[in-house]
Design a protein that fits this description.
Helices cover 73% and strands 4% of the residues. The radius of gyration is 33 Å and the shape is elongated. The longest helix is centred in the middle third of the chain and has 55 residues. It has a single domain, classed as Protein Binding, DinI Protein, Chain A, CATH 3.30.910. It is mainly α.
């Protein structure tokens, strides 16, 4: 027997051996697949819910009130900085170079502090908004879980994640109705500085 024949014989034995060993595994996977329940999938347009939910609208209104308060405070700060800058320009010819440079650095520090305040306020608003919207998210999950149990859905997928679905499987309207009934408003926590 030449080398090619020996190699072919070995390869054939390996294939036969693999087939013998793999057959029970393949049959076992097929049996498991037969035991699985068929997939029943619904979908939800979560962005529509966040846009149209009464509680979400309430949250946006409350955030606007807080933003208005912050903008009022910031407007005062901006006016104060403008006044300080005008005074600095007026004093420039009257002050020694070192004194002017010192006052200019102090002014720049005040501007930097005001910018940090704006960033802090925006983070505070974002944190309050996220905390409030999380209540909506938790409630939506509970509603979807309850509907899935009652209607027999195995999966509920967000609309943006699917390419095609029949309208019959869209549960957005029902979820939105239940959400509006269960959670008509959410109190947004007052934006506060995070403890360091």
């Amino acid at each position: 027997m030449n080398t090619n024949s020996k190699l072919k014989s070995c390869a054939l034995m390996v294939i036969v051996g693999f087939t013998v060993l793999a057959a029970p595994l393949l049959n076992n996977n097929a049996a498991r697949a037969e035991k699985l329940a068929p997939a029943v999938i619904a979908f939800i347009d979560y962005q529509q819910i966040l846009r149209d939910a009464v509680a979400a609208k309430s949250i946006r209104q409350q955030i606007q009130v807080f933003r208005g308060e912050f903008q009022g405070e910031l407007a005062q700060s901006e006016q104060s900085l403008r006044n300080e800058e005008q005074e600095l320009k007026r004093q420039r010819p009257l002050l020694a170079a070192e004194v002017f440079a010192s006052k200019r650095r102090a002014f720049e520090d005040n501007v930097a502090r005001a910018q940090r305040t704006v960033q802090d306020r925006n983070r505070m608003l974002d944190r309050s908004y996220s905390q409030a919207m999380n209540q909506i998210s938790v409630t939506v999950r509970k509603i979807v879980a309850s509907m899935s149990e009652g209607l027999g859905f195995n999966y509920v997928v967000e609309r943006s994640q699917i390419m095609f679905a029949k309208r019959d499987f869209n549960i957005t309207k029902q979820v939105l109705e239940q959400l509006n009934a269960k959670l008509p408003t959410v109190e947004v926590p007052r934006p506060v500085q995070k403890a360091k």
